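Work through this protein:
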Amino acid sequence: IEKLAQKQLLTQSEAHNLTEAYRFFRKIEHHLQLEDWRQTHLLPEEPHKLQVLSRKMGFDTIADFETTVRHVSTGVRSIYQSILSEETAPEPDPLETLLTSESLTPELKLTFSNMGFKNPAQVFKLFSGLFSGTVQHPLSSTLRKSFRAILPQLLEELQKQPSPDEALALFTSFVKAYGSPQNLYSLFQENTSVLALTVQICGKAPLLAKLLTIHPELFTALTTPETLYEPFDRERYFRQFQERLSALPESAWIDPLHASKRAAMFQIGVQFLAGIIPLNDLFLSLSNLAGATLELALSQIAHERQPQTPFPAAIIGLGKLGSLELNFGSDLDVVFLTTETEQPSLQEQEAVLRELIARLNQISPTGQLYKIDVRLRPEGAGAPLLISLDAYQNYLLNRAELWERQMLLKSRWIAGNPEPWKQLSDFIRAYLFAPGLSGEQVDEIFAMLEKIHQKSRKKFSREMDLKNSPGGIVDIEFLVQLFQLKYGNKFATLQSGQTPELIEELGKLGLFSARDARRLRDTYLFYRRIETYLHIGLERPRAKIPLKGEKLEILAKLMDFRDGRAFLDELKSKLTQTSDRLKSFKTILKTS
């Protein structure tokens, strides 16, 4: 393929696409032949075998894998047909027209429209800036030559994005922010995969693209494969923070922590976009990043206030933080526990924790580290921030409600002194699972769920609440938690884990049918993928799906659907199926 490109029998973009397609198909072939130790090139028809192959190829669902196979095959077929088709009279090169025109011609306008751009005038202006610069800062002929070399692939990559216009605008902003277009264009020319990934970030993750524009130093992560492919590591994160802090006074720790968290979050996001990590590992990495950031912030504040005394309190994570399922933009639900009530006093410990919350919640020019939510503590928002271990156990035994027992299914030690959690863990396990779950308690949890549904319906107009609507994210999580509470004492493997893992385990134990387990797991991951793209693709802080307009179309394309209608049809089908199945499970839970 490389030699064909050198002989100009293939364009650079065609050579790149054929090379990537060949590697992709050979990888599938490798897994197929290792599976049965025989030569075969046929995809398995059995769903379970196809699911295994999909996961080996790095896909969360069969649908994602099959969509990618079709997309790659279509691209190869298009190149094949273009090469072997009969030669026709040469047409004007639209790229040459773009680079030589001083104004937007009708031909260029049509070319841009055919490429999927919505605003040809703005697109022409942006391309002119990339190629020619400005009157005050014109680009050199060498620089224009470099841009000319990357333009075919740039256009090709832009056309793959949900909104080529927005992708081009963000790409242009990044080029300006980078400050050295010559180096950037040369790098893109030498490493086409970096150009493809940069455009993908601009097209599919504006949240990350804007971060890259504000902090161009993050671009280094895209150009160093050994860094890009590294999974998040807590100890390495601590070292990088200390390196950033070493040149500054100890009291100036907040900016190095912002920089460390920003770099790690960007890398994790790019790993997900590039298919290096699956969705579950994205949540795992983001959860571990949050925990490490809490640990660093707490240690810095405690050292400033009490340099001679180890801080005795623990941070316990709840919700998505506790279950290692944190997404972009998620709040951190926590409670604070301590075994020490005298030296230092509860008031002194609480002062450290209040400063921790204030520093993490603070919105600065570099952004906000995290939003800390402490409303789930015993007695609610008006209660003391910190509670002793004895008082917490007494509260759970005598005054806690059923929803608080349910909440503790997603609890774990995050930062600070691990001793309070070690002392509490056996008590928590018995408190959660020993009582089982009565029919009345099943009714109570379903009544809570119905209140959540009613609240979501009141706000249902131009948006759909994916989290709280009937059949949505919360329904699946509540269902899994109901089975955990009812059967956790009998099956230790149900006592903790990420939701998809627990669904799989319920299937293995026979508490879910194989079909229910597969459907619920796939549906849950489908919902969480939507939630992820709502955050990084549409920059929406909550899981609210637009029901019409351009944003719906962009979301549909991010989810690999042809248009918004097809996406909503599939989503509504999954919501209905899940809601109906939940009702049948209620009967099973009450009678078993």
About this structure: The first strand starts at residue 313 and ends at 317.
